Amino acid sequence: MKRTDVIVASLLAVALAVVSAEAQNVVKIGQVEAQTGANAIYGWMSSQGTALAVDEINKAGGFSVGGKTYTLQLIALDTRGEPKEASVQLKRLIEVDGAKYIFGPFLSNVFLAIRPYAAEFNGKILMWGGATRIHDYVGTPGHEFLMRTWNWDAGPNGFGELMVDDLAKHGVKKIALLYQNDQGGKVMEDIYVAMFKRKGIEARLDYFEPGTKDFSTVLAKIAAWKPDYLFPGYADSYIYDIVRQATETGQLTKFFLVRGSLGPGLKNKDALDEYVVYVPKYFEEAEKKDPKVQKFVKAYRDFYKRDFPYDQAPLCSSSCYDHVYMLVEAMKKAGTVDDPAAVKRALMSMTYEGLWRLRFDDKGEEVFNFDVVRLKKGGAIEVNHINPK
Amino acid sequence: MLSLVAGQVLNGAIVGSMYGIIALGITLTFGITGIVNFALGEFMMIGAYATFALAERGGLPYPVAVVPAALIAAVAGYVCNKAFFRFTRGNLVNGLLVSIGLISVFESAVLWYWSATPIEMHYVLPGALRLGDVSLPKMKLLVFAVIVVVIALTYVALAGTWLGRASFAYAQNAEAATLMGVHTERLVTAVMLYSTGLAGLGGALYASLYSLEPSLGGVYVLKGMEAAILGGIGSLMGSLWGGVILGVIEAVGSIFLPTAFRDAYGLAVLVAILLFRPAGLFGDES
Amino acid sequence: MRSDFVLTIFIYTFLSGILTVTFDLIFGFTGQLSMFHPAVFGLSAYVTHLLVLHVRLPFWLATLPAAAAAAALAVVVGSICFKFRLKTFYFAVVTLAFAEMLRLIIVNWNSVTNGTLGLVVSGKPTIWWPGTGIVAIRGPVAWYYLTLAALGATVFICARVLASWMGRAFGAIRLNEDLARTLGINVFRYKLVSFAIGNALASFAGGLYGYYTGYIDPGYLGINQSMEVLAMVLLGGQGTLTGPIVGAFVLTALPHVIDLRAEARAILYGAILIFTILVMPRGVVGTLRAWRVRRAA
Amino acid sequence: MACAAGRVSGARGGSLLEVRGVTKRFLGLVAVSDVSFTVARGEIVGIIGPNGSGKTTLLSVIAGMVPPSDGAVIWKGEAIQRLRPDVIAARGLVKTFQNPQVFAELSVFDNVLVASHLALKHARGRHRALTLVGIEGRAARGLAARVREVLGLCELTRAADQPAGNLSYGEEKMLGLAMALMCEPELLLLDEPASGLGHEEVDRLTAVLRRLHDAGTTLCIVDHKVGFLRGLAARVIALNYGRKVAEGRPDEVLNDPAVVEAYLGRAHA
Questions:
Q1: What is the rounded average pLDDT of the residues D225-247?
Q2: Same domain for A35 and A136?
Q3: Which of A150, C280, D41, D242 could form a disulfide with D54 if both were Cys (CB 3.0 to 4.6 A apart)?
């Protein structure tokens, strides 16, 4: 017992030493994302975008606020998708490293586990996460520190709402939902099953265990129900297999996605009839038209020395890339780097023109322009750019 | 409805054969070295990514790529045996811990190189075969055939070769076998090479059916263990049957019952069978 | 200012410690490789919270039915396994199977468990404190002492059991079942006793864990939890009471000590696991002990 | 042995153990075939026979380690052939192993302490639970004393603290005996206790067994060392090929042609 106290004390002393030894004009950005492990995909991509932006800004000599020049320090920690790790890491970021700006998490179970602790620092930190469950808390009293960096599905600006309306317009009567049985899938059930009902579309939902790779059985089951569209979960690692196995036997050929990417559709473009998907940005097209996007793609290639993941990038990498810049802009606007509350006020009142046009609604949930891509048999693509008011 | 069931029985058997090939590796390793190579799934993963690299990056035709991929996995297995498993022989749990460590190492290494974005090979043999209302993907049928042949050959070979006699003798009675001049070290090495090679082959075949991610092996090693026990540790054909039965149960089970419980159906049957035949379906009671 | 960061590592160490010590009672002392631990851990987290939520029991009262449930479940699962003489690998896989089935039930029983969304736990356990009266346990320091006390109690109980005739019976079963039988030890019963006690005590870890993190989800019952507990015990030293706690501390702190990019960190983590067990096959404590004995002799 | 004496009950004077037409087949071959005999309280009965004559199997059947294919084992007028070995041991019928079984990792003292399971149970019954909360320290102290007593009886006191793994073969056999004694047997089944022992070890063993017998323990000793048994047993049963070929006073039995043949082969008959 005594000994443990000694250890605590000594470790603590070290920690303090670290904190005080830090240079003055560095703004620390902490990041808690799953970069490894089974659910790494979202966190991994977002940590890539953040690192890239931070590198660019520092290479450009940092930024100046109130006549003082600051550089960014990114401390990206890998939660491995484990709430336990994340909660320890968040404490480290806030107390030991003294980071005031936290990016992430994208995983809802991680968010829910670290929320109570983060809330203790309400007003002293700013947390930017993409997790779906943040939606339940953002803008509620005691959670002023919280902002959600992702469009919400439902509501007037909701991309899901809009896409389902479109389906209804096309006279769709039956849709089969096939979600992975986890937090994300459950949230989507809560959003979409109700939504389809409202729009008079008959929906049936099947869950599969995460880790499943062979969907033949459940697909056969669904096919026997003869739906107009199949609406598979949200992670590409499953959607690739679902789309392949559904089309290979010609059981189901029309797909509708609000998460995931265009990749699976393109891969099976000859076997399917239609593939409607929400992508924050259709990069293959944007790269040709938009110089900003061109620059970003090039920067990514140079920085990571690997080919650009067109299908995954839109998921979050680049929106995190934008967020770093947006945060810097907000700091300039607020004229301070160490008053998260002021920085948040600035963020709420601004619109940032990066790869996206980013702004936050009055709750602190992000609203940005996105694309809905409709892929037809053989690869004909029709992109629909949507710019929420 | 009938065609639905028939189709799923076939499909279940195919999927199950995939469990079977891992189960075979587990049965061999456990029988001879007394360790459960929990990392076998990782060698499967290595085989899968190696196939992808050789076929997509190296430009080899898939059938050609499969062989070196399996070999790569086997070599990895050989190294791990020489470096680690050699020291945990006969110690189930320490071997298990080494496996846990290896999983962390391999998956992170692959993640480092390939990133977390799911990757998928070009389709080797697209399209499906129609038999009445039942339609099965051609590639799946091919994979099934390959696995059945491999396991059958293993069975035949083990009956008639030095490795076979040695391993049977060893499995019966270690000391006696050693006295009879069975070179334990050589035997164990051979078994490790073979089981990891099998896993690699399994991975290579997997790569032609599903998209790849670093954690793909985890599910299969669990199913493989279930299948091995279901069939009876030490029984070669038993491992194939165990896998097939498991696959069919999961498939048929999830036709009539919620898909969300898919894994539970297999487990329930496994437990039930163990209670009546503690040594598994094809294991020898004693 | 004190560092919650460090305290938190200790709190998690103590919570895991409850799991590892009780697991070692079943595995290290009685020789039964159980994969059922995370199941009771998760289950009791749910039971405790649901009782507080719906039955309005105070936390401490709610942990008792949870422990009872854990024990009852252990008796059922244990009887099945031990009646049919399932050993080592077989026992491990069957207990794992039961754990998985339990997890799937909790995952899919939405009306009660809220499925994969999990349950947000807002309350905190309260204790009576001289002078101040009833106080809720908040903040790292309070939790540090609470979890330490809980671990202490667990170790104490295990130590008493192991010092008694039961402990001797456990050892006999681990070392030589046939001999144990001829000495009149009811192998089946004492395997069951060990399994039940271990799981019942482990259930407290579940209840506390849920109330400390303030969030419960089916991940609690995941198989990797099983693997982590096993790793902690083997690393620390099986068949000892201190070993599992040492292991819990090492594996809880380790990921936060390695300061590398994610992938490298995970690789190093794995490598450390492997080499520790190769260099110290009996775990840190076990090996140190053997070394001391050798020096004494 | 106070505790043991206290538990004398059941068929007073009459036969303590009765083996009734016991037969044991292992996949076809017959190890024990239709063997019957009785053991009265306070007797020392010897069972002799060449190797492979089924002695060990017979003992295992009696001790409940293997169920008989046929026949019955009656203990104090109660059929026990279907009971678990631990239950049988708990009823006072305890067996030692031919090649000694010990807990190699534990010290000799702890080996015997583990064997005190039944002793404590008989002495304290449910009250054992109290030892958990620290009360009833007496029980624990009592055990320790008893263990030392038994160790002394078996002349293992000097070895008490070393791990059982380090013992010599002879000492291991003694330890096996000590553990059996700790179980407070009414009838002690000894499987070839003298095999592999040197002369002085055999003498020591004989002395110990005598002391036991004087203390009121009934003994049933299996051995092919005829000389050793002649010194001890009042009555001897001879087995050959799983059959009982002779029974009676040692010298009678040893001169019985069937026995001579069994040991020396036809030529001498």
A1: 86
A2: yes
A3: D242
d(CA A238, CA D163): 58
Same domain, B199 and B69: yes
Same domain? For B139 and B271 the reply is no
Among all residues of chain A, which has the CA nearest to that of C12? A84
Of B170, B172, B282, B191, the C-alpha closest to B237 is B282
Please tell me the distance in Å from C220's CA to the nearest CA on chain A: 10
Q: Is B267 on the interface with C (CB under 8 A)?
A: yes
pLDDT band at residue A10 under the 50/70/90 scheme: low
Question: Domain containing A264 — which CATH number?
Answer: 3.40.50.2300
- Nearest neighbour of B112 by CB, restricted to C107, C231, C263: C263
Nearest to C80 among B98, B268, B275 (CB): B275
Closest CB to B263: pick one of C100, C234, C271: C100
Residues A129 and A183 in one domain: no
The mean-pLDDT minimum among B197-201, B243-247, C5-9 falls in C5-9
Q: Tell me, yes or no, whether B270 lies in a domain.
A: yes
Both structure tokens of A95: 């107390």
Q: Are residues B273 and B209 part of one domain?
A: no
> Quick one: which H or E segment has residue D238?
strand D235-240
A75, burial (CB in 10 Å: exposed 0-12, middle 13-18, buried 19+): middle
Work out the minimum CA distance from A286 to partner chain C, whole angstroms: 31
pTM of the model: 0.90
Mutate to test the interface with B, among C85, C274, C275, C279 (most CBs of B within 10 A): C274
- What residues in D contact C168, CB-CB < 8 Å? 110, 113-114, 116-117
**pLDDT band at residue C16, thresholds of 50, 70 and 90?**
very high
Same domain, A225 and A267: yes
Q: Which residue of chain C comes nearest to B230, CA vs CA?
A: C90
Res B286: pLDDT: 47
Whole-angstrom distance between the N-terminal and C-terminal Cα of chain A?
60
Strands D78-79 and A26-33: unpaired
What is the count of structural domains for chain B? Answer: 2
Instruction: Give the domain range for residue A82.
Output: 2-150+316-355
Please give the Cα distance from B197 to B204 (Å, whole number): 10
Does residue B192 belong to any structural domain of this protein?
yes
CATH number of D2-105+184-268: 3.40.50.300
Residue A103's contacts (CB-CB under 8 Å, 6 or more residues apart) are A29, A30, A31, A32, A33, A46, A50, A128, A129, A320, A323
Subunits close to C (at least 3 CB pairs below 8 A)? A, B, D
| CB-based contact A186 C1, cutoff 8 Å | no
Q: In chain C, which residues have their Cβ closer than 8 Å to the Cβ of B229?
A: 89-90, 93
ipTM reported for the complex, 2 dp: 0.88
C contact residues 171-200, partner D, Cβ 8 Å cutoff:
171-172, 175-176, 178-187
- Taking the CB of residue A219, how many other CB atoms lie within 10 A of it? 24
Domain hosting B73: range is 25-214
Set of chain B residues whose Cβ sits within 8 Å of the Cβ of A241: 210-211
Rounded distance, CA D251 to CA D231, Å?
Answer: 10
Whether C159 and chain D come into contact, CB under 8 Å, resolves to no
Omega prior to C140 cis, within 30 of 0? no
CA distance, residue B276 to nearest chain A CA (Å): 29
Q: Do A127 and A167 fall into the same domain?
A: no
- Which among C20, C19, C89 is positioned nearest to C237, based on CA atoms? C20
For B18-67, the pLDDT digits (tens) are 999 999 999 888 877 777 888 999 999 999 999 999 999 899 999 999 99
Distance from C-alpha of A351 to C-alpha of A329, rounded to nearest angstrom: 10
Write down the domain spans for chain D. 2-105+184-268
The pLDDT of residue B174: 65
Say if residue B239 is in the same domain as residue B138: no
Residues B182 and B266 in one domain: no
